[in-house]
Amino acid sequence: MDASLISQGLDLLLYGMGTVFTFLTLLVGLTALMSRSVMYFSKEEPIEAEMSSHKIHSTLVEKRIVKVIQAAIDQHRGS
Amino acid sequence: MDASLISQGLDLLLYGMGTVFTFLTLLVGLTALMSRSVMYFSKEEPIEAEMSSHKIHSTLVEKRIVKVIQAAIDQHRGS
Amino acid sequence: MDASLISQGLDLLLYGMGTVFTFLTLLVGLTALMSRSVMYFSKEEPIEAEMSSHKIHSTLVEKRIVKVIQAAIDQHRGS
Amino acid sequence: MENLISLWASSGLAQIALGQAVMMLVGFVLLYLAISRGFEPLLLVPIGFGTVLANIPGAGFDAAPVYDALGHLESPGGLLYYIYHAGIETGLFPLIIFMGVGAMTDFGPLLANPKTLLLGAAAQVGIFTTVLGAVAMSHFGILDFSIRDAASIGIIGGADGPTAIFVTSKLSPDLLGAIAVAAYSYMALVPIIQPPIMKALTTDAERQIAMVQLRPVSKAERIVFPLTLLVLVAMLLPDAAPLLGMFCFGNLMRECGVVNRLSDTTQNALINVVTIFLGLGVGSKMSAEKFLNPETMGILALGAVAFCIGTASGVLMAKLMNLLSKDKVNPLIGAAGVSAVPMAARVANKVGLEANPHNFLLMHAMGPNVAGVIGSAVAAGVMINLVSGM
Amino acid sequence: MENLISLWASSGLAQIALGQAVMMLVGFVLLYLAISRGFEPLLLVPIGFGTVLANIPGAGFDAAPVYDALGHLESPGGLLYYIYHAGIETGLFPLIIFMGVGAMTDFGPLLANPKTLLLGAAAQVGIFTTVLGAVAMSHFGILDFSIRDAASIGIIGGADGPTAIFVTSKLSPDLLGAIAVAAYSYMALVPIIQPPIMKALTTDAERQIAMVQLRPVSKAERIVFPLTLLVLVAMLLPDAAPLLGMFCFGNLMRECGVVNRLSDTTQNALINVVTIFLGLGVGSKMSAEKFLNPETMGILALGAVAFCIGTASGVLMAKLMNLLSKDKVNPLIGAAGVSAVPMAARVANKVGLEANPHNFLLMHAMGPNVAGVIGSAVAAGVMINLVSGM
Amino acid sequence: MENLISLWASSGLAQIALGQAVMMLVGFVLLYLAISRGFEPLLLVPIGFGTVLANIPGAGFDAAPVYDALGHLESPGGLLYYIYHAGIETGLFPLIIFMGVGAMTDFGPLLANPKTLLLGAAAQVGIFTTVLGAVAMSHFGILDFSIRDAASIGIIGGADGPTAIFVTSKLSPDLLGAIAVAAYSYMALVPIIQPPIMKALTTDAERQIAMVQLRPVSKAERIVFPLTLLVLVAMLLPDAAPLLGMFCFGNLMRECGVVNRLSDTTQNALINVVTIFLGLGVGSKMSAEKFLNPETMGILALGAVAFCIGTASGVLMAKLMNLLSKDKVNPLIGAAGVSAVPMAARVANKVGLEANPHNFLLMHAMGPNVAGVIGSAVAAGVMINLVSGM
Ligand code: NA
Ligand code: NA
Ligand code: NA
């Protein structure tokens, strides 16, 4: 029973790492393939920046800020 | 049984549309009545703008922004 | 049975208020003790202001605002 | 070696049935439509992903929990199982979404012109004629729909996702996947489905009708309206009270001005969380045996018909109103009565601008548009009431 | 024709009982008080609306789900049924609210002047004398309250909504509607109930007492305090540990400075969502048979008495402390010991300013104010402990 | 008098067992580590507090609800009971957290350099050698671990909290407290555990290797990647599909750009709420009989070993890759393969800067870092699959 415990552990090590490596190696290949296909099909330019709505939000905020500032500066200039 | 299915469908159409029209026609009347009573009882001026807290929030933000700008401009003027 | 209801009420009043006062009196003592120990162990300066993330957030926002303003003023000065 | 066989035996490749593969493909198509074509992405991204997850062989997303004789949990259920049974089977998720939609709805344009409620009523004709179409198909042996199925299919014509899900989960849960997908897909297709019908049924002169500017609406009216609607529902059609009650509650929170923090959370965190889980839960009903059958094709076809009839009825009702009243309405706004908020109102506006570039119908179309939400919730209530008694 | 009869028979008008109509009216009155009079709207809007929904005849908001013999769901329960049983019967919602309240509470003023804790203790006299009043009413045959009922009624005097709901749902769930409504209504009435009592029990000179500015409190003290309180509760009164434990947890998240994102969500999305559902769930207990009876009038009367006695005890305790100590406290801040955060502290400040326009008591009153929250949670714990053993 | 005895008898002081006192102390130590030492506070604050709450004698935080013969609730369960059974035993909370983590994960660096996935694979060696260590301890009679226990302990080496909780709650729920605490503690200790190993296994020249700047990654790639990963998981290892499926779902919501409001809520309100309750629920498993035994010491020791081996394997794998390929990678980024996002990547960056102050490795290390998340989820899947069949 105890020997079987050790052998179970060895099995886990063997099949576990085997699966992990197989899986991630396949994923490396698939990802490379995917990237190439995507680039082939879409001529879209790459985007490095964050795509999250955070950006959109802060852009909006900034636009408003800039507008407010413009108004303030105009007033300041006028005065 | 199948004929009854058709007749059930017809019943649904008849009573269903009847209810929908009755209900919404009553709602038209009630809404008009409600609006008139509300206007009669409250002499409050009508408000077209958004009432959501969004507005309140952005007003607060804008007040803060304006204050910051004022400070910045004052400093700028002073320097 | 009814008399027992009254006596249960009296018991609640007696033991209840007793517990509340005992508990909060102990808490007064423990709090004072705690404050003294904390002050003894930490030489940290006391902080009166809000510690909430609100502050942090608004500081960040303000920093951004100030930067934007600086840029605006620079541009304004340059023009 | 035994372990290798066990790993292989439990792999997806070894277990996958053709139906599952096709359904995963259906899921990816939904994701494609949502992401690349912009089809109601807030719902179709979760539904599409849920479809893929539910059809992964051996992943158990849809598995029921197993308890031993003493009631202890032996193996937990899958995520989608819990979502479906806690949120959709009980009706909780559609009701919470309706509360959120209420909190996002501005009844101002409707209050300024209440007779546009009738346009929202007319557009529900699509619902009931489609029911008739479904039972006719069954009668002629083309497809096999019960009266409960037919009622659920009809509600697609309401162009209101949560209403469709609420009714279907009560009347024919097995059709939930197909009906939800049809409802949201057609809502997304409103800009394609509606304009030809609108143009075919109106003259150029009608499309150019300019409407008078809407009167301002007071805060008090906005507060009293959801309560008025609630009382009317309570007195006349309690079966519509769950949907419309929560809708009115959300709207009251929005308008009353004293619980803004509750209203904000309802419109944001709460409705977003429930939308994600509602979509995933609907996806869990997208199994091959429930989706890949001729009935689904029938549902899709009938749903499209429902939309078309609803659109036409709204337009024709507007023309009828013009015959009977001096205040002319532009019949294009009748098409917005199907709901599909705010897409249908935008379509009315766009078609109107094509006829007269200075005639902005958007705000006028918002009235029938939100009336359509009320109309289809009323239709849902009467359907649940009558069908339950049949 | 049959269908028309069925529709009519299931309509609200055909089914409504007088009690339901009256309760719907009660719901609208609560909404009116919340929206137009500003009575604790965050709770009374959902409670009022929940009251209306729960009393719509035939809408089934409060219906239990029906299962067939095999355990499959035949018909789902109503929204309010699920909310009540999942969130209120289990005590989860009041506890989560307490966590949120903890995350919103600033113990700074209390830490700067810990002896104000005694004012928070004194104000709980209102709770226990009201218990005595309730059992006396029962003894003299005026109304019929058990000791469990009496304990729940007394806790109204704690001026703390979630505590009252937590205790009542454990001790006498049938009174939940009346007690929650009384608790929140009186909390809203603090600015009307308290000032006359405060003025009657203090001289003008006392009301003018200026208090020394509070010392600054270090971050470390703020972090250690909730843990100190937790240990004391754990050692002395575990029955108060659910409420105070969650309260301390929320406060620790607020003050520790390393989990701000958790603290923010607790203070916003989480507490808002739970507030909505707590209110609706309380509304579901507002049925005619449970609310429209003489006991409710007794509860309202006793609740008002509890508030008055609590206010008076706080003020008198402050005067007693002045007799025994050199550091004088302004007795007005004793009234803030009933909790009703932050309303009672503002009232103390306002009455103080009337006596001396340069004497700002707000921060000084925040100490007893938050002490009152602790005090009533302790009272709740001892009540649950003693009553369970009776 | 009787009442006084009852109060005393039910007080914590009268009831406390030594084990509970020690466990409360353990809870305070966790709070100290989280707050003062910055050990993964988002999880360890709730876990520590939950530990204290669960061990308050007589407070019943962990009590099961009691129903009478008719199924009515006689006494409700404790807060932690409900949290544990609804959210952790079912696996829901870890899965929702994984969805949130997915929505926060930027796969850009990984997509720019996909072979760093192999570093994420190599670091999982720590998991499986630790399993072997645990069964060896059992074999030699030092401690008593079943194969299920050993698998759960190994997963600590995955440096991924929700994965560890998900696996342990499925395989050996009794070890949940110890394993979760070990996992999060070691994740916090990454800056102390890893650098010596990294330096011992690399030459100064290797640490100075500069890597070419990462290519920009298109939006389309970012959208297709989670779907690619999902298909691979579905086909090869459905047991990993719950974790990786939800992870991919979150990431798709983030990247697809059309459901930003869902993605925002997932990254904020939703994950925060679930994190709080997950932590409290884990704390509920921190009872003396389950934590205060030699096995816990074994778990802590084995967990540390797992971390060290994982770090070493990652570094060695990077060196092996350099032998076989022209594009040299800095072996320091191999250490980031254990996950512990983003701490391990920062450590790699810091150690790299010590060797060459102009060589910024942070973005390069993010690739293996997120690969480590995938790697340990795959390891979790294969573990659940194999162990269930043993
Ligand atoms: Na509609
Ligand atoms: Na109180
Ligand atoms: Na990992």
Please provide a written account of the structure.
The complex is a heterohexamer, with 3 copies of chain A (79 residues) and 3 copies of chain D (390 residues). Chain A is mainly alpha-helical and 79 residues long. Chain A is built from 2 helices and no strands. The radius of gyration of chain D is 22 Å and the shape is globular. Chain D starts with a helix and ends with a helix. Chain D has a two-stranded antiparallel sheet. Chain D is an all-alpha fold and 390 residues long. Chains in contact: A-B, A-C, A-D, A-F, B-C, B-D, B-E, C-E, C-F, D-E, D-F, E-F. Bound molecules: sodium ion (NA) (3 copies).
What share of residues are in beta strands of chain A?
Answer: under 5%
Briefly note the structural class of the backbone of chain A.
mainly alpha
Residue runs with pLDDT of under 50 for 5 or more positions of chain D: none
The amount of helix of chain D comes to: over 70%
The percentage of residues in β strands of chain D lies in: under 5%
Count of DSSP strands of chain D: 2
Mean pLDDT of chain A: 70
Give the number of helices of chain A: 2
Please give a quick description of this structure.
The complex is a heterohexamer, with 3 copies of chain A (79 residues) and 3 copies of chain D (390 residues). Chain A is mainly α and 79 residues long. Helix content of chain A is 84%, strand content 0%.
Topology:
The complex is a heterohexamer, with 3 copies of chain A (79 residues) and 3 copies of chain D (390 residues).
Chain A lengths: L1 H40 L11 H26 L1
Chain D lengths: L1 H8 L2 H4 L2 H19 L4 H14 L11 E2 L5 E3 L3 H10 L3 H13 L3 H5 L4 H6 L2 H15 L7 H8 L6 H11 L4 H26 L2 H4 L11 H18 L4 H16 L3 H24 L4 H4 L2 H31 L18 H13 L6 H28 L1
Antiparallel strand pairs in D: 1-2
The complex binds sodium ion (3 copies).
